[in-house]
């Protein structure tokens, strides 16, 4: 042990923890967790942020960081920059987790929140994140430094030189000379790509599993598969599998990591654990008698505590908060009447109904069902049953990207006594049926 001279010396060299086989229950698997949550600002992004700016720092005085980030990268950039008088303007679709926004504000980050386009990216739109950053840089040349985590190879390199090498060294210390699987969430893809590239040098057969959120679901810190296309660093062929995890499974696995292993990790780590078991259970079962046991490492990206409001919204019963409705049971979801686009169109012509579009404002603005109102899923989720702002005498139809989120809200409002429906297949099905869409300028 020694005393450190500078906080940046504490970035990296995070612990590798073997996850007890008695808990995961998979024979012939040695599963490890790389605890990136031990970085000084709390996440895997500390390495990427430091790796992207450290060489340029001496020349950056007087300028400001401008970055697309809604959380961990912004936090690390802000703290690293503040010590050198460099501010941060974080541009983001929307920060959906209150604690994350509050922490950034507390640290002095300037946050530019755009309407939210997660389901419907449109780089040509004037309020797309990339477009706003490009316009800001052009308007004020020389004022901003854009590290550009989604395209900067130094993000990948930070994990190639650090995370991957550290895993190899830690395993070598335990007499293990190869890794068969790396599993991690996909945001920029820097951590999975850098780590796996380093480890593949010692085992060319290494397989990388990328973890995304299920379509229409939200897990803070990672993207859904459809949102990966605008990540410049993303190389689809790099991944052996890309596994989509539903938010509810990520939350359950997050709680399991805490209760059974003592790992206080955020929901993307829960998602990575759930995906790891899905992939590794059949892989371990398929081993032949002489094969060596599988060695797998999952990346624990950050800590549990910044996500209390996210967890409260999904598991209110754990917080002893009876005013918040518990999520619908499978039977309640199954009981929701699902309208085809044609049925919704007929119903809309026949009588007065309320159509509620639960997508982000940008997606709504680009294309929505004529006459529908826009109430984002996270706002809707904040209402208690007696606060719901809908007319009880009219049928209520929820609309979302593909019909899952809408089913959730239809089930909850039916429980509260509304005559509620879900549009089957979501806005995509409405569009495919050739029915009219409205655009708001
Ligand atoms: C909590 C969390 N998990 C996972 C990731 C994914 O990491 P990467 O950007 O290296 O793909 C991020 C990225 O921001 C994150 O914040």
Automatic annotation (TrEMBL):
<dbReference type="InterPro" id="IPR036873">
    <property type="entry name" value="Rhodanese-like_dom_sf"/>
</dbReference>
<dbReference type="InterPro" id="IPR050214">
    <property type="entry name" value="Cys_Synth/Cystath_Beta-Synth"/>
</dbReference>
<dbReference type="Pfam" id="PF00291">
    <property type="entry name" value="PALP"/>
</dbReference>
<feature type="domain" description="Rhodanese">
    <location>
        <begin position="349"/>
        <end position="439"/>
    </location>
</feature>
<protein>
    <submittedName>
        <fullName>Pyridoxal-phosphate dependent enzyme</fullName>
    </submittedName>
</protein>
<keyword id="KW-0663">Pyridoxal phosphate</keyword>
<dbReference type="Pfam" id="PF00581">
    <property type="entry name" value="Rhodanese"/>
</dbReference>
<dbReference type="InterPro" id="IPR036052">
    <property type="entry name" value="TrpB-like_PALP_sf"/>
</dbReference>
<dbReference type="InterPro" id="IPR001763">
    <property type="entry name" value="Rhodanese-like_dom"/>
</dbReference>
<dbReference type="InterPro" id="IPR001926">
    <property type="entry name" value="TrpB-like_PALP"/>
</dbReference>
């Amino acid at each position: 042990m020694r005393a450190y001279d500078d906080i940046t010396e504490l970035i990296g060299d995070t612990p590798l923890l073997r996850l007890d086989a008695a808990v995961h229950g998979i024979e012939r698997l040695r599963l490890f967790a790389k605890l990136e949550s031990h970085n000084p600002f709390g996440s895997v992004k500390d390495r990427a942020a430091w790796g992207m700016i450290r060489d340029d720092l001496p020349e950056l005085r007087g300028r400001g960081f401008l970055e697309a980030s809604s959380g961990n990268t912004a936090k690390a950039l802000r703290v690293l920059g503040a010590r050198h008088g460099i501010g941060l303007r974080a541009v983001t679709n929307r920060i959906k987790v209150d604690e994350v926004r509050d922490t950034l504000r507390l640290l002095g980050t300037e946050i530019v929140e755009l309407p939210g386009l997660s389901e419907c990216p449109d780089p040509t739109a004037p309020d797309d994140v990339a477009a706003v950053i490009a316009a800001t840089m052009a308007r004020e040349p020389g004022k901003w430094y854009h590290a550009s985590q989604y395209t900067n190879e130094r993000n990948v390199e930070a994990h190639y030189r650090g995370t991957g090498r550290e895993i190899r060294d830690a395993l070598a210390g335990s007499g293990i000379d190869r890794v068969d699987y790396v599993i991690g969430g996909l945001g920029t893809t820097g951590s999975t790509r850098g780590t796996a590239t380093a480890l593949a040098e010692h085992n060319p057969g290494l397989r990388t599993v990328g973890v995304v959120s299920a379509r229409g679901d939200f897990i803070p810190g990672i993207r859904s598969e459809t949102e990966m296309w605008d990540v410049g660093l993303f190389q689809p062929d790099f991944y052996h599998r890309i596994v989509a995890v539903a938010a509810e499974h990520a939350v359950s696995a997050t709680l399991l990591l805490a209760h059974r292993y003592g790992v206080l990790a955020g929901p993307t780590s829960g998602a990575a654990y759930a995906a790891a078991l899905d992939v590794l259970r059949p892989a371990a079962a398929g081993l032949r008698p002489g094969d060596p046991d599988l060695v797998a490492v999952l990346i624990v990206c950050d800590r549990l505590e910044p996500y209390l409001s996210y967890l409260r919204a999904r598991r209110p019963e754990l917080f002893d908060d009876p005013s918040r409705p518990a999520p619908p049971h499978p039977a309640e979801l199954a009981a929701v009447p699902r309208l085809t686009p044609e049925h919704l169109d007929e119903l809309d012509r026949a009588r007065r109904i309320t159509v509620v579009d639960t997508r982000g404002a940008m997606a709504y603005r680009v294309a929505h069902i004529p006459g529908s109102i826009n109430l984002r899923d996270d706002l809707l989720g904040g209402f208690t049953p007696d606060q719901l702002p809908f007319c009880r005498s009219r049928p209520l139809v929820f609309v979302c990207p593909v019909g899952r989120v809408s089913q959730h809200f239809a089930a909850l409002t039916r429980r509260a006594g509304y005559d509620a429906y879900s549009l089957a297949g979501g806005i995509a099905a409405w569009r495919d049926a050739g029915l009219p869409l409205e655009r708001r300028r």
